[in-house]
Design brief:
Elements: E1 14-28, E2 31-42, E3 45-53, H1 62-71, E4 89-98, E5 104-112
Antiparallel strand pairs: 1-2, 1-4, 2-3, 4-5
Length: 121
């Protein structure tokens, strides 16, 4: 008996409506980072994209800009529950980059505020 699977095509570069489907601290090789997960609407199909950023949030660095885009403001409190942004809408800009092994991968280049009046996923 054979098993047939449908292979997903790479997500094209571009700007897509999305929602934050997860964000958490993770570790690889002793290095801590923020692991962001996005559910991206690609031609009506939900696709998952994962990105990593610094775990340190400031108003001007990448994770801080992403948080501000998702929330609409940068939180001024010393403590903030990252889980509270799960489910929030946004727009992600995806680009293709080549890894050192020569593989083409999709990378989240920017996270932007959601489009006005758009219903996403």
């Amino acid at each position: 008996m054979s098993t047939i699977v449908r292979l997903k095509q790479p997500i094209p570069s571009g700007t897509f409506d999305a929602r934050v489907s997860g964000v958490r601290f993770a570790q690889t090789g002793g290095r801590t980072y923020l692991r962001w997960e996005f559910a991206v609407n690609v031609n009506g199909e939900e696709r998952r994209v994962v990105a990593a950023t610094s775990p340190d949030l400031t108003e001007t660095n990448k994770p801080g800009r992403w948080l501000k885009a998702v929330l609409g403001y940068y939180p001024k409190d010393e403590q903030f529950d990252l889980e509270s942004i799960v489910g929030r809408r946004c727009v992600v800009e995806l680009v293709h980059v080549k890894t050192s092994e020569g593989r083409l991968v999709t990378r989240v280049d920017k996270v932007l505020p959601p489009r006005e009046g758009e219903i996403v996923l």
